[in-house]
Amino acid sequence: MTSRILAISLGGTIALSVKDGKAVATDGADQLVSKVALQKTEVKWSTHQFLNKDSIDITLGDLARLCFFINSKSAEFSGFIVTTGTDTLEEVSYFLHEAFGDRLNIIVTGAMRPPYSKNFDGAVNFNFATTTSLSHISQNHGVFVAISGHVIPAMHVAKKSSVRLDSFEPVYSHNFNAHMNPQSRQNETYFENILPDVSAFSDINIPIVAVSIGTKFCPIFFEAADGCVISCPGAFSLPESIIPKLQELAVNIPIVLASRCIHNEPVPDGIYPGYQKRQEALGFLIREYAGLSPQQSRLKLVFDILRTRQVNACK
Q: What fold characterizes domain 204-314?
């Protein structure tokens, strides 16, 4: 049986080549497809150069357009492989998860070393992503990262190093399932009926503000913000000195508290009785975002705000 897979390139280290003495993203998914070493498996490949960017330069609008593009091709392909830069691979994969849930078979991969390096890992990772995609065609639909021998659900992926080949690992064991199961997107017209147009993603402003020892409230971070994520130490902790000002803001914009810890599971009442409820009573959002990194919390908040606006506009 022939499986149809669409490989989509966004740029990043996996696509770098040297031009005029400078590393730039020029290689596309077709170069990687040509190196796929599969035996006894037939794949009908298509490739698409969607972007040619360092992943730090990708915008929310870019990702929204990517989702609309994938959605438009969903009836034609049994799987999608998205290659992107590893600096923001976690965010790209989580955005796709928020958009699609478990409706489609989407695998995200990248590389820690460029093609001109003797330790180039992109071809191996792409091969691995291909075999993962094929194994997920009949089951396990959803957004997964396949890299360095790990297959990680988009909600569980974390980058532990900026240089090591084995930089990506799952944040949680499979036993942590409090709210981490992907939401199904069965409706084929999900984008047309629920998501706003791409410009809404381009215009929204949600900063992440880090809290550390000695942090003082700085109003400039919140100017023209549609919402905010506070990257907190430990168990969603906030200095008492800045809570009143954040409370005032929470009346007008959503304020999410996210732990900067890699393992940022919800805080059990047995450890800090009533703490989470107290923070939520002050107007801050925790429960629906617990377990997400600050970056993931920001992307979830983007979708939550835009969906709310869409619903209100239809009333």
A: Rossmann fold (3.40.50)
Beta-carbon count within 10 A of 153 CB: 22
Where exactly are the structural domains of the chain? Answer: 3-193, 204-314
Ranges of the chain with pLDDT below 50: 174-182, 184, 186-188
Partnered with residue 256 across adjacent β-strands are 229, 285
Query: 160 near 167, Cβ under 8 Å?
Result: yes
DSSP the chain: -PEEEEEEEEESGGGEEEETTEEEE---HHHHHTT----S--EEEEEEEEEEE-GGG--HHHHHHHHHHHHHTTTT-SEEEEE--TTSHHHHHHHHHHHHBTSSEEEEE--SS-TTSTT--HHHHHHHHHHHHHHHSSS--EEEEEETTEEEEGGGEEE--SS-TT-EEESS-TT--SS-SPPB---TTHHHHTS--HHHHHH----EEE--TT----GGGGTT-S-EEEEESTTT---GGGHHHHHHHHTTS-EEEEE-SSS-PPPPTTTSTTHHHHHHHTT-B-GGGTT--HHHHHHHHHHHHHHHHHHHHH-
The CA distance from 249 to 222, in Å, is: 8
Would you state the pLDDT for residue 190?
A: 54
Could you give the count of Cα atoms lying within 13 Å of 33 in the half-sphere of its Cβ?
A: 20
CATH 3.40.50.1170 fits 3-193, yes or no: yes
Query: What pLDDT does 172 receive?
Result: 66
Question: What's the angle, vertex CA 13, arms to CA 260 and CA 9, rounded to 5?
Answer: 100
Alpha carbons within 13 angstroms on the beta-carbon side of residue 175 total 0
Supply 175's token pair: 């036993």
- Give the pLDDT of residue 191: 57
